[in-house]
Each structure stands twice: as C-alpha cells, then as structure tokens.
C-alpha cells in the first residue's frame, strides 16, 4: 500500500491528581492565577511505582489493542521523551522488547513537546517507503521529576502521561504531509541539562528552565501560521476540518491560535490541559484518546495536529482518524 494511516491510539495517565490548591503549597500562587494564565485546574503526576516506562508500555498496549494488532506485528518502535532516566539504551528498545516485538527497529527522538508529531512523520515515511509495515509511536513524559517545585514560573505547568499511535498501511492517503522546522536561535527559551558535574559547573540546571514570554510569543505568532501551513499542505479547507488538536501547552496559546486560524464553530478543539496539565510529547495522543472516548471525535474525522516546544522545534500534520 502506498499510503499510511493511524490504525490505533492509546493513552495512559498516572494516578496522582494534583490540584491547584496543592500546587499552591509548593509555590506562591493562586488557583485563580493558574486558571486564568493557563486554563489548568489540576494535573496528573506519577505516584509511587509509576514511571515513564510503565506509562509508555500501557499506552502502547492500548494503541495495539485499538488497532487489533499485537506486539509481534510491529517492525518499528519510536519513543519521544525527555524524561527517560538513561542516555542509553533508548526507551524505545526497552519497550520494543517488553511489548513483544520480534526485535523491531527502535529509537528515541528528542523533540520535546513536538515529539509525537515528529514521530508520526517518521512513521508515516517509513510505512509509505516500505521500510516498515507497522510502527508504534509513543510520546511519554514524567516532567514532574524534572520540574523544580520551587520555581513559580514552571511548577504549575508541567505534568506526566503517555500517548501512543500505531501507524500502518492504507489504500487511501490519511496522513500529512508534515510541516516542520526549528529555530535554534531560541534554544535558550526552554532548557534542561543532564545532571553532569561539568554541566552544573557551567551554571546549567537539571530542572526545566523556561522563558515563558518568549515561548508564548513564538507559539501565538509563528506556530499559529505553521498550523495554517499544515492545512494548505494537506489541501484541506478549515470548514472540512473536524478536530483541532494543538499541543496542550497552555489554553491561552490555544485561544490565540484559534483567533488566527478562524476555524468554523463545527471544529472541536482539544482542551485536555485543564485536567492533565502540560504533559509535553504525550499531550496530543492523550487528547485524541479522550476525544474519541467522549464521543467528541470519531473514526474518519479529519484532525489538525501541531506540536511545538523546546528547541525551539515544531511539527504538524492533518490526519484522518
Ligand atoms: N503565581 C502567581 N503569580 C505569578 C506566578 C505564579 N506562579 N508566576 C508569576 N507570577 C506573577 C509575576 O510575579 C508577575 O506579577 P507582577 O505583574 O505583579 O510583576 C505576573 O504574575 C506576570 O508574570 P510573568 O512571568 O510575566 O507571567 P506571564 O504572564 O508571562 O505568565 C506563563 C507566565 C503562564 C508561563 C506565560 O508566560 C505563558 O503562558 N507562557 C507560555 C509558556 C508555555 O505555555 N509553555 C508551555 C511549555 S513549553 C511547551 O510546551 C512548548
């Protein structure tokens, strides 16, 4: 088959719910400020025993179930994460074994909050070229481990979770083309170092450091136009779209994108950040799963996905669910 399609989606959220009242025991803030600036009411953090690996496995298994496939059907596993404890081996190699592939190709990608869309683009190309038949793409983060709970410019924002998609062959075109790029000139906008003595001696920190205003400007300006380019690259008119699923960075960023895009009322917009927080690479597949489960989305819907984050990097595509 010359085309690729998302055959199944899955997600896994950690069990611990951290509301804004609890958040305000860590930082000097208020429920009202956090809701007004971000839309977040509560977020999910890992509890004892939950890890980026356990969440990835659960999301991957759910996506395989949804696709009606098993691990043995996979010949590729791609994981996007910045939360894996090891530099090597990749989390993807571990997942490929534990999910029961027969030695599938496996690699991690580092594209922060854009990682799921980067992974989808990779999977689409691999399937379309014939290099792979079924590729599992996972976006997974445990940013609660990487956030400085005393940093009132980031602590309220970030969270944990995993989402996954199985990409496989299709007779009809159902994904892309991807619109992507980077702006390393803004590399300092969101950073997190390895906790190596050399890095720490240079003044780096192993918690996330963010220039919130720089990210906000970029996301509401440049990324809003990138979302528009995703539609034209796919030859899709706004009124043909069913779902808009931007990375769940912040509801105010989503609002600003909507003002730019002028999407019709009929388009359903993802807002899962409200109850999950910003779980980075996981946010888009987690939102898609929630929207399918609630009936807001259905198989066959046309969805505009756009991921953006540290790098700065971005990737987006229109997909048929
Ligand atoms: N609680 C209460 N008040 C706060 C807090 C807090 N946690 N943090 C800052 N403030 C106060 C400041 O002291 C300041 O008060 P002042 O006006 O009296 O001096 C005021 O709020 C504004 O502070 P700013 O730092 O300018 O806050 P800003 O309005 O920029 O909001 C925020 C911060 C929400 C992070 C915003 O910059 C933002 O949304 N940025 C986008 C970042 C984002 O969404 N990143 C997503 C993660 S990266 C990614 O996923 C791509």
TrEMBL record:
Where is the protein localized?
Cytoplasm
Listed transmembrane segments: none
What residue stretches are annotated with the Beta-ketoacyl-[acyl-carrier-protein] synthase III N-terminal domain? 107-184
One Pfam annotation, family name?
ACP_syn_III_C
What NCBIfam families does its record include?
Answer: fabH, PRK09352.1
Q: What does this protein do?
A: Catalyzes the condensation reaction of fatty acid synthesis by the addition to an acyl acceptor of two carbons from malonyl-ACP. Catalyzes the first condensation reaction which initiates fatty acid synthesis and may therefore play a role in governing the total rate of fatty acid production. Possesses both acetoacetyl-ACP synthase and acetyl transacylase activities. Its substrate specificity determines the biosynthesis of branched-chain and/or straight-chain of fatty acids.
| Name of the protein in question | Beta-ketoacyl-[acyl-carrier-protein] synthase III
UniProt organism field:
Propioniciclava soli
Q: Which gene encodes it?
A: fabH
């Amino acid at each position: 088959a010359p085309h690729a399609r998302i055959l199944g989606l899955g997600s896994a959220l950690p069990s611990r719910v951290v509301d804004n009242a609890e958040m305000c025991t860590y930082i000097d803030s208020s429920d009202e400020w956090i809701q007004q600036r971000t839309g977040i009411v509560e977020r999910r953090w890992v509890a004892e025993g939950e890890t980026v690996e356990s969440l990835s496995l659960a999301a991957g298994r759910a996506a395989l179930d949804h696709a009606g496939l098993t691990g043995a059907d996979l010949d590729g596993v791609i994981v996007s994460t910045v939360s894996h404890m090891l530099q090597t081996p990749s989390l993807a190699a571990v997942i490929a074994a534990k999910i029961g592939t027969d030695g599938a190709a496996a690699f991690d990608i580092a594209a922060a909050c854009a990682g799921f869309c980067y992974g989808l683009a990779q999977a689409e190309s691999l399937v379309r070229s014939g290099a792979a038949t079924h590729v599992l793409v996972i976006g997974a983060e445990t940013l609660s481990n990487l956030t400085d709970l005393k940093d009132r410019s980031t602590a309220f924002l970030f969270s944990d979770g995993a989402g996954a998609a199985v990409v496989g062959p299709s007779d009809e075109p159902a994904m892309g083309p991807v619109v992507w790029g980077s702006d390393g000139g803004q590399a300092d906008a969101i950073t997190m170092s390895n906790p190596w003595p050399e890095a720490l001696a240079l003044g780096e920190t192993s918690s996330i450091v963010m220039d919130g205003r720089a990210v906000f400007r970029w996301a509401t300006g440049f990324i809003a136009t990138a979302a528009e380019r995703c539609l034209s690259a796919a030859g899709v008119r706004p009124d043909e779209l069913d779902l808009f699923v931007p990375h769940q960075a912040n509801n105010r960023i989503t609002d600003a994108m909507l003002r730019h895009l002028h999407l019709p009322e009929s388009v359903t917009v993802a807002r899962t950040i409200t109850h999950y927080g910003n779980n980075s690479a996981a946010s888009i597949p987690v939102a898609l799963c929630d929207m399918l489960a609630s009936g807001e989305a259905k198989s066959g819907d046309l969805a505009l996905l756009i991921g953006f984050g540290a790098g700065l990097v971005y990737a987006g595509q229109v997909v048929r669910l």
